[in-house]
Design a protein that fits this description.
By secondary structure, this protein is mostly helical. The protein has one domain (about 5-85). Helices cover about 80% and strands about 0% of the residues. It has 4 helices and no strands. Helix 3 (about 45-75) runs antiparallel to helix 4 (about 80-85). It is elongated, with a radius of gyration of 17 Å.
Length: about 90
């Protein structure tokens, strides 16, 4: 049986992106991001906003790398690794 790994990768990445965006908005709401960009916040506050975004972005990228590695491995071995794809942990920590 052939699996559409590109479709799986796309679905996982889409779900991960939605989660990442929600976490970023929770940690640094749009108004805080805007105020930091406009220079309304003092340096420490602006840096805190940037740090929150960077930390979540880095966690998102690490999780993307993990998904790509699992799927790349599954593409090599096909059916045996398919079970691993269904258990990919999409939580960003």
């Amino acid at each position: 049986m052939n699996f559409d790994f590109d479709a799986m990768r796309s679905v996982y990445k889409s779900q991960l992106k939605k989660q990442s965006n929600a976490l970023i908005l929770r940690a640094a709401p749009e108004h805080a991001q805007r105020n930091a960009a406009l220079g309304v916040l003092d340096d420490d506050e602006a840096q805190a906003v940037r740090n929150a975004i960077v930390a979540l972005r880095d966690a998102y990228r690490a999780k993307l790398d993990e998904i790509d590695a699992i799927i790349a491995d599954a593409e090599k071995t096909d059916r045996e690794k398919y079970r691993d794809l269904r258990s990919i942990d999409l939580r960003i920590s």
